[in-house]
């Protein structure tokens, strides 16, 4: 059952200590060999269960700490990318910035933005295309084009 010699010796010592502490009861036992074997088996199984529980707890802790670490790291990356996107948006001309904000943050469609701004839906589309092009260029200039999708995902996940 136990593959470690040192661990087997430790369990054996624990068993002998247990038997020694209950030595007064030994004369009442009909079959001392069976009694000792039963104690040994139960003690060994208890030890194995404790080790398995410890291993499971360590595994859960390790998995949760990795998940927390990954989540934290991912959140930091998304926050950094969102900051870069916001820096790009801040540099947009006022009309493009407003169209972008209404589309991406308020979730309005072209027609709703057009009504609110008193412009045509086609003009809304043009402003949004230009804004997105500028943001992509800004991110590319920051050498972060492959990560722009994370920022966009964070914007869409907020909805």
Based on secondary structure, the structural category is mainly alpha
Count every beta strand, where a strand is a DSSP E run of 2 or more residues.
0
Give the biggest beta sheet. none
Helix content: over 70%
Shape: rod-shaped
List keywords for this structure.
mainly alpha; Arc Repressor Mutant, subunit A; 6 helices
Draw up the topology in text.
Layout: H1 5-21, H2 32-90, H3 94-105, H4 110-117, H5 121-141, H6 148-157
Q: Can you characterise this structure?
A:
The protein has a single domain (5-157), classed as Orthogonal Bundle (Arc Repressor Mutant, subunit A), CATH 1.10.10. The protein has six helices and no strands. It has helices spanning 5-21, 32-90, 94-105, 110-117, 121-141, 148-157. The model has no long low-confidence stretch (mean pLDDT 80).
Tell me briefly what this model is.
This protein is mainly α.
């Amino acid at each position: 059952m136990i593959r470690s010699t040192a661990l087997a010796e430790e369990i054996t010592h624990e068993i002998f200590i247990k038997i020694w502490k209950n030595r007064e009861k030994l004369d009442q036992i009909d079959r001392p060999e069976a009694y000792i074997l039963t104690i040994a088996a139960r003690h060994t199984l208890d030890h194995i269960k404790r080790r398995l529980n410890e291993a499971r707890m360590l595994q859960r802790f390790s998995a949760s700490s990795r998940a927390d670490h990954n989540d934290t790291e991912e959140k930091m990356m998304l926050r950094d990318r969102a900051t870069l996107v916001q820096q790009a948006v801040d540099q947009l001309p006022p009309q493009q910035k407003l169209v972008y904000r209404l589309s991406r943050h308020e979730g309005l469609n072209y027609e709703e933005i057009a009504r609110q701004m008193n412009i045509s839906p086609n003009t809304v589309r043009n402003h949004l295309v230009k804004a997105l092009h500028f943001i992509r260029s800004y991110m590319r200039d920051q050498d972060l084009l492959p990560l722009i999708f994370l920022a966009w995902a964070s914007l869409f996940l907020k909805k």
